[in-house]
Structures are given as C-alpha cells and as structure tokens.
Amino acid sequence: MPIYKAPVEDTLFILNDVLGIERYNNIPGFSDVTPDMLDAIVGEAAKLAEEVLFPLNLSGDQEGCVRHPDGSVTTPKGFKEAYELYRESGWLGLAAPEEFGGQGLPYTLHTAIGEYMSSANMSLTMYPGLTQGAIAAIIEHGTDEQRATYLPKMIAGEWTGTMNLTEPHCGTDLGLLRSKAVPQPDGSYKISGQKIFISAGEHDMADNIIHLVLARIEGAPEGTKGISLFIVPKFIVEADGTPGTRNGATCGAIEHKMGIHGNSTCVMNYDDATGYLIGTANRGLNAMFVMMNEARLGVGLQGLSVSEIAYQNAVAYARERLQGRSLSGIKAPDKKADPLIVHPDIRRVLMTIRAFNEASRAFTLWTALKSDVAHRSQDEAERQTADDLLGLVTPILKGVLTDRGFDHAVMAQQVFGGHGYIEEHGMSQYVRDARIAMIYEGANGIQALDLVGRKLGLNGGRAVMALFKEIGDFCDENRSDDQMTAYTKALKKSLNDLQSASMWFMSNAVAKPDNAGAGSTDYMHLSGLVVLGYMWAKMAKTAQGLLASGAGDREDFLKNKLVTATFFMDRILPETALRRSRIEAGSDTLMALDAAAF
Asked: Where is the Acetyl-CoA dehydrogenase-like C-terminal domain (predicted)?
C-alpha cells in the first residue's frame, strides 16, 4: 500500500533559514509569523494531510464520482467528511483577507501547506483549490456588493468556486467561444452555452457553487476583446445571503478521465442561467487571468506534490525489494539478494527526483513570497520588482514543475518494475494524476510561448534582467568562498547559457518568429534549470552556515542537503548547455516539411 509523510523539516528549513521569512514582518500578515507559529501550523497541516486526506486517495481513485439522473454528483466515500474537517479547521481562509473572514496570513504559508494537501490527495484538494482562484478574482474585480455576497461563504468553505473557460470547439483560443450573455432589465444577464473540463463543477460537499463563466454579451466584438466574465451561482443568493432558487447551471456529464477520478470534472450546461457581470464588460479575460495566474502557481505545485509522493514510495520500495547483487560487492550477506537501493541506476533515479523536489519546494515558496510582496508591501518599488519577477517565473514554474513532475512519477513507477504497472502499489495513480497538470491552465507549450513571446520583452526586458542580476550578484558575492566554488561555478555557467540563449532570441526571433516558437519549450526548461540551480546554491550556502555555527540534531539533514546540491550541480544543471544548443538550432528543420508529409 502507498505511504506519505509530509516533508515538514524541509519546508521549515526553506521558510526559516533560506528565505528568512521573519525578515518580512513589516509586511501585512507577516508580523505574527514566528518560527513557533510556523512549526505549529505546518505540523497541523501535515497531520491533516497524512491522517485524513491521504487515506482517501486510493479509494477515491477507485470509486470516482457519480453523476445521478437529476444532474447531481456524489463524491467518493469519505470526501465530504474530510472536506468538512478541512473547512472547519480554517485552511481555506488561511491567507484570505480578514475583512471577509480569512486569517490574513501570508500566501507563502498557504503554498507551503498546499503541497502537503495535494500530495496526500490531489483530487480532493482541487475542490478548495479552485475556490481560491475564484476568491482572488472576486476580491480584485468584484463590486463591494459581490464581495459581501460571496466572499465570506467561499472563504469559510461553505460555498466553493469554479472557473469556466473551455468549450467543446475551443480550448486555448478563447476568442472562438460561443457562450452568450443577454442583458436583463434588472442588470443581470442570461447566460447560455456549454463548458467542458470544469473541475469541481458539481458535487455534494458545499451548499452552493459559484461559477465564474466567460461569455460574450450580445453585440460584443468578436475575438478575445469581446469576452466578459460573469458570476453564475448554482443557487441564486437570496437577500438574506442564503441559497435560494436553483439556477440554470447543470452538470450534463462527468468526463471519463485518465486520472484525478475523485474530482468531478464536469460538462456544464448553462440554459438561460442568471449571471452577474464581474469587472468591466468585454474585459473578462483580464479578470479571469487573476484566477488563472493563481491557478498556474497551484498547478505547478501539483507537479511537485505528485513527484514528492511518488518519490517517497519509490524509496520505500527500493529499500525493501531484493534484486541482484551490488556491483561493488555484497551488501546484504544475510539475504539472497541486495535491496534495489544499492544499485547505481536506482540511485540515479531517486537522486534525480529528490534533487528536483527539494529545489522545486524552494522555488515555489520563493515565488509565493514574491506574490506576497507584490500584493502586500507598502514599498512601491519593492512591489514593482516582486511583481515583475512573479510575472516572469509563473509560466516557468507551471511548465517546468509539471513536465518534470510527470516524468518523475514515471521514473518512480519504473523503480517498481512490473509491480509499478499494477494498481495495488498505487504508482499508476500518480502517473495518471500527474498527467493533467501539464495541460491545466494553458498547456505547457502555451506557457513556453507566453514566456518567450510576451514575458521576456515586457517593459524592455526589465524582469529578466532583474533575474539575471539577482543570480549573477549571488555568484559574485560568493566567488571568494572556497566552500561555495562548486556551486557558484556551475550556476554561473548555466546562467551564461541562459543569457546567451536570450540574446540569440533577440537577434534571430524578431525577424523570424518561428525561431521563438521552435525554441520556447527549451528556453522555459533552460530558465527553470537555472532558477532551480539558484535555489540549490542558496540552500547550500545556508546549510554551510548552519553547520559552521553548530547544527546539533540537524547535522545529518544539512549534510544531506550539501550532497544533494552537489548532485544537482554535477548531474542535472549541465542540461542547460543542451537546451541552449537546441534553441540556437533555430526552426528550419522543424518547419521544413510540408504539412502533408507528416
């Protein structure tokens, strides 16, 4: 049977020691975040993930959701009770504004505990996860009345939320959508159309579901410039704030999916459903992108989460499974064979996943901290810098972590051999669940195009130059430290690859855009490798400092950090040269064949 243990020690090391979260206590929400408080919150989250959510993961996958003839949906056994405990414990409102019933704590902390929840049960965690995005959109673009009507119940978890973009004939190209909105005399709209792939679109765990739906107002321009965003509740909210009349928003079917069976991914039919405009007419994508950006960070976290639980199970199996003898001599003389973990190729797999997971955890928390600074800091320049970096790294984090997360789920499955292919060990579920994250919130090829085609040149390249400077300054500041030489030398070399690839785009992609498209995915991964390398260099520097000052019972943990950091620099970071070479190969061979030749 599968296992899961939340990586609490690693999370606290990153928050307290690497990022120094206490240094941000001048920012709203951070003043009460002491190491003791962090320890308590993270510990409680780990307990909920391990003891409540995780035991339902396998059974939820096997049972799935059931749609009934009346369009209602029942979630797997135990999901409703687990969600109720999650809701009552206040986890959904951890980082939400206090004025609407939240706790106002940092988004960084929400991200930290979000990893545990998603590792333990990705399907179940998606119900409150989608709600978080809807909350963010209503906070930023809703009217005072809309905020008062919906936010308290959503932050309390009594109501959940969704995002409705995709239609049967259009996915990423939202300019093709057909859902329409007809204005009504009372200021509301009648929404009609069909949406597909709507996660948590219908379920039995909340009193109301608040759908955020993209549609085109009658007479609005064609294309993306004519799209508006609407709040469409499952039940119309009465004057006293309670759910009233059933709206014309129904689940027509549950998608038959490869994975995440415990989440009700619905075909949603809107038949003259009452909706309320959120934000400005014909500017719906601007409002929806608030939700999508929040979701992209959450989906990147899913990539890490599945990689982590797959890794833990692969390690446990490799320690126990006897298979062959070590190349360097017998390691278990009292047994007929040595455990898998003695073999170098098994170590290659496990170390690759481990090095990714620990750096990705730092990357997600570093990015979440940028989000907190961008949204909460009182210093305008500080907000600007953080917002620039947040916009730049969001597609990198989403694309790289989900691509690698899926790859690592497959690698972990391989450790099990044939036992990884059958359902009893649970590894196939992690592979199936991880696959969707590469598609969510814009497939990863779209993330790469967003990065290269839009983010690199934004504001004259201000964000990417700031990133280059931050990493370059770190290398320069630690160049004279002999203990850091191995890390800074490798990091500087990879940064040079990234800077050279960026310059190549400037020289070769403006006149020939296909060069940008051809190299975009490699550039996204090249950027991700450099940022992950930067995270490892920062962690190595921190670990060395703590060891030098007396690590106590953390000595083994910190020494293992340095070993894993060195592995990353030696075995993974050199991939930047390969990525750069592919980018500089251009698009000629990619685009040479006529379409009919494929």
From this structure: 467-594
Nearest one of 290, 300, 292, 265 to 115, comparing CA atoms: 300
CA distances from 437 to 9, 549, 556 (A): 26, 41, 34
44: left (phi over 0), alpha (psi -120 to 50) or beta: alpha
Rounded Cα distance, 557 and 188, in Å: 58
First and final CA of the chain: distance in angstroms?
Answer: 44
pTM of the complete model = 0.97
Name residues whose C-beta falls within 8 Å of residue 190's C-beta, 6 or more positions apart in sequence: 181, 182, 184, 272, 273, 274, 275
What is the Cα–Cα distance from 363 to 385, expressed in whole angstroms?
Answer: 17
Residues sharing a CB contact under 8 Å with residue 418, sequence separation 6 or more, in sequence order:
none
Secondary structure string (H, E, C) spanning 541-593: HHHHHHHHCCCHHHHHHHHHHHHHHHHHHHHHCCHHHHHHHHHHCCCHHHHCC
- Angstrom CA distances, 159 to 197, 285, 438, 577, stand at 20, 24, 28, 49
> Strand 159-164 and strand 208-217: pairing?
parallel
Sign of the CA dihedral with 380 first, then 382, 388, and 393 last: negative
**Whether 353 contacts 415, CB under 8 Å:** no
Beta partners for 558?
Answer: none
For residue 510, give every residue at least 6 positions away whose Cβ sits within 8 Å of its Cβ, in sequence order, or none: none
Catalytic (active-site) positions: 441
CA distances from 189 to 218, 271, 585 (A): 10, 12, 52
For each of the chain's 598 residues, which pLDDT tens digit applies? Answer: 899 999 999 999 999 999 999 999 999 999 989 999 999 999 999 999 999 999 999 999 999 999 999 999 999 999 999 999 999 999 999 999 999 999 999 999 999 999 999 999 999 999 999 999 999 999 999 999 999 999 999 999 999 999 999 999 887 777 788 999 999 999 999 999 999 999 999 999 999 999 999 999 999 999 888 999 999 999 999 999 999 999 999 999 999 999 999 999 999 999 999 999 999 999 988 888 777 777 899 999 999 999 999 999 999 999 999 999 999 999 999 999 999 999 999 999 999 999 999 999 999 999 999 999 999 999 999 999 999 999 999 999 999 999 999 999 999 999 999 999 999 899 999 999 999 999 998 899 999 999 999 999 999 999 999 999 999 999 999 999 999 999 999 999 999 999 999 999 999 998 999 999 999 999 999 999 999 999 999 999 999 999 999 888 999 999 999 999 999 999 999 999 999 999 999 999 999 999 999 9
